[in-house]
Structure to design on (758 residues):
């Protein structure tokens, strides 16, 4: 099976990371993946899309578009559905699968449904919100053997006995990190670790600067801003964190959250639909407000048994949804479309 | 691959023109090459220059108004810019595979440069200095691909031929000639180098036959709008004549008339040693001086080295790594003289004078062989084979990845043709 996958590639982007992991897993299941690389950043025009559709490998069996609203806006077709993209891809006469990494724009969603042979959504919330027929294939997880927690802390210059509450991921206003910082104000003798940055710049953004400034007042001397975490440091960073908080105000799914779960982290996430689904499976906790978050952080830090249980459940979830299983589901779907 | 260069016109005389021309010619056998010449160099339509498609220049001095359109029209894989990244205002915001050559002639590197590089597909550092600066100041990864020199064009002549060159440039056989080939810009610190000449002459009263041959316009343009939009930042040319008069250097310094400078001379004329060209100028010289405030690379150093000359540079930015067995002189201070507020070195005039003395007293034939050997490492053929080709192969795999159980390859290269 030869899959042509339209996606950003090797850039700081959640979808690029997703495609990388999925491609590797598909290959393990016997597929060959041909990346049709989409330029992730910058002002797009119709020509950008024509350029993209002109560079498709000739012998593929199927085209799989990793779609997110922001990825395909271009000149004349000023909506997230890009007619030029689908017209161009249709010309190759291959089945088209679209994975919706964002959902809920009715006009875009209906058009994508109509021009795709199959649409993939990540969870029940996305399926519901997409409002048209779609196949749920969850976002995959990598199960990673964590380092010794104390050694990981020492590697980051953190005293080994200090409990750490942390976040790793992109940092934008909708990620809600101020909630985490405010919650930590009254959780004394606990360190805060924040890893990540903005997509296109290694330098700080105004929002990050504001967060840093406020955090110095609210949790003085016990917060570490690590910046972008390189691949080779990810395990150290995740391993050092005792409780992972994911305060995103909006999400359809989260690669960062699932990566933390793959590292077996006790997770407390904002109470939004896609995360509630994971809570129902017992894999994470969710919180409703700052006070509630603070209470749950304290509870997990105080009660080792409870934390270990949540870590175990996170790991079980990751095992159920490991990339191999997810790739198999993709292959089944691809086979259905190409037979 | 399909590569499009955005640079000075490749048929021009500037350093960037030479870089673009040399790279284009050497990459052509395996790749499709196009070029967008900057600075309104081509106001007409497209034409084919010996296999390189040359696009019209557009209105914007740096070609930003046409670059994206031509990138898509050519179906280019990458747009390689050969210019200081800070000149661009919009290019980095376009959804194209931008590959800027990061030309960094100062330290610490200006945010005016680093902020233009974060969205690039790849960044080429033309010096180890630039590579270090990008990593240190902005955590930007880059690939080192140095500038090179055409060692078949720039060659040391025989003693007999050198005599002919001296004659061609109106020098006597036993004159001691130091040459300087550069633009007239404040950051070049030419007045400091003039003072060094004065110091050299005062400390070596026995040297009666010394000349500095300056291949530079010694006077600024008569109208400000004649100043080419070269840097995109204020870096003005200055009137050097008053200082030369004040220092009493009119006799030992020679320079060409402004018209010859503006027209330029070829690297090598069709009739070598019969007409002025850069190779004959270097072969008429005994040493090369450019102790400037900062260099992003060192094309003229390489050209001098390839002709067997010992170059002198300031120990700052990228120049030292381009001069090999040449002489570096320390900076005594720095100055901020352009709009982005970057630091430029002020060379120590006494050390420059010492360096010239050293060249005067050294076995220049023996030293010249070392210089030539160093330059050969930077021959364009070597640069393309050792640095550019592996880089392009890596880019090919990243632009068209095919992932199979056997590993990562490029599906496009398996087709055997660009698309």
């Amino acid at each position: 099976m030869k899959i042509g996958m339209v996606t950003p590639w090797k850039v700081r982007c959640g979808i690029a990371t997703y495609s990388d992991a999925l491609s590797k897993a598909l290959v393990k299941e016997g597929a060959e993946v041909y990346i049709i690389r989409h330029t992730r950043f910058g002002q797009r025009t119709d020509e950008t899309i024509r350029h993209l559709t002109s560079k498709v490998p000739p012998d593929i069996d199927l085209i799989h578009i990793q779609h997110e609203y922001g990825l395909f806006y271009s000149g004349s077709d000023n909506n997230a559905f890009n007619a030029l993209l689908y017209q161009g891809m249709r010309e190759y006469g291959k089945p088209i699968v679209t994975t919706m990494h964002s959902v809920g724009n009715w006009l875009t969603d209906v058009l994508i449904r109509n021009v795709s042979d199959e649409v993939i959504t990540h969870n029940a919330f996305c399926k519901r919100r997409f409002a048209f027929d779609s196949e749920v294939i969850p976002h995959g997880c990598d199960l990673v053997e964590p380092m010794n927690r104390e050694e990981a802390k020492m590697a980051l210059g953190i005293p080994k006995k200090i409990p750490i509450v942390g976040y790793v991921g992109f940092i934008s206003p909708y990620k809600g990190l101020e909630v985490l910082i405010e919650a930590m104000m009254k959780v004394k003798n606990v360190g805060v670790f924040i890893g990540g940055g903005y997509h296109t710049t290694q330098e700080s953004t105004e929002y990050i600067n504001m967060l840093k400034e406020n955090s110095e007042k609210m949790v003085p001397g016990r917060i570490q801003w690590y910046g972008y975490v390189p691949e080779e440091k990810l395990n150290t960073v995740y391993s050092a964190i005792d409780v992972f908080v994911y305060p995103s105000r909006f999400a359809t799914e989260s690669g960062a959250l699932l990566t933390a779960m793959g590292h077996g982290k006790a997770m407390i996430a904002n109470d939004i639909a896609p995360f509630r689904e994971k809570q129902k499976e017992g894999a994470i906790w969710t919180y409703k407000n700052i006070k509630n978050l603070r209470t749950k952080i304290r509870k997990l830090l105080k009660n080792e048994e409870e934390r270990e249980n949540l870590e175990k459940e996170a790991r079980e979830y990751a095992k159920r949804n490991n990339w191999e299983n997810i790739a198999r589901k993709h292959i089944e779907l691809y086979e259905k479309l190409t037979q | 691959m399909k590569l499009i260069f955005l640079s000075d016109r490749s048929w021009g005389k500037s350093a960037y023109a030479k870089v673009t021309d040399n790279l284009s010619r050497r990459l052509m056998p395996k790749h499709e090459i196009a070029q967008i010449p900057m600075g309104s160099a081509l106001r007409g339509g497209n034409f084919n220059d010996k296999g390189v498609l040359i696009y019209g220049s557009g209105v914007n001095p740096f070609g930003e108004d046409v670059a994206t359109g031509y990138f898509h029209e050519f179906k280019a894989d990458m747009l390689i810019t050969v210019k200081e990244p800070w000149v661009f205002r919009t290019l980095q915001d376009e959804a194209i595979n931008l590959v800027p050559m990061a030309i960094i002639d100062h330290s610490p590197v200006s945010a005016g440069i680093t902020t233009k590089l974060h969205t690039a597909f790849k960044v080429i550092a033309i010096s180890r200095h630039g590579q270090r600066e990008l990593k240190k100041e902005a955590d930007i990864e880059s690939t080192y691909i140095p500038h090179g020199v055409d060692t078949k064009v720039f060659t040391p002549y025989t003693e007999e031929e050198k005599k002919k060159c001296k004659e061609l440039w109106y020098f006597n056989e036993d004159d001691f000639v130091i040459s300087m080939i550069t633009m007239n810009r404040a950051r070049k610190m030419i007045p400091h180098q003039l003072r060094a000449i004065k110091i050299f002459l005062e400390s070596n009263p026995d040297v009666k036959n010394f000349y500095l041959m300056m291949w530079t316009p010694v006077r600024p343009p008569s109208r400000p709008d004649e100043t080419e939009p070269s840097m995109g930042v204020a870096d003005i040319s200055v009137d050097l004549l008053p200082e030369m008069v004040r220092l009493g250097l009119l006799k030992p310094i020679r320079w060409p008339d402004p018209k010859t400078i503006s027209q330029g001379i070829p690297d090598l004329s069709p009739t070598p040693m019969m007409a002025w060209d850069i190779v004959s100028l270097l072969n008429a010289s005994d040493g090369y001086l450019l102790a400037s405030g900062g260099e992003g690379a060192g094309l003229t150093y390489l050209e001098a080295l390839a002709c067997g000359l010992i170059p002198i540079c300031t120990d700052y930015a990228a120049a030292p790594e381009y001069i090999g067995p040449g002489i570096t002189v320390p900076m005594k201070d720095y100055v901020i003289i352009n709009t982005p507020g970057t630091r430029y070195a002020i060379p120590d005039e006494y050390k420059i004078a010492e360096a010239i003395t050293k060249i005067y007293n050294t076995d220049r034939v023996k030293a010249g062989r070392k210089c030539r050997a160093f330059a050969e490492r930077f021959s364009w053929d070597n640069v393309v084979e050792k640095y550019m080709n592996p880089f392009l192969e890596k880019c090919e795999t990243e632009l068209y990845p095919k992932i199979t159980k056997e590993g990562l390859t490029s599906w496009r290269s398996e087709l055997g043709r660009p698309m």
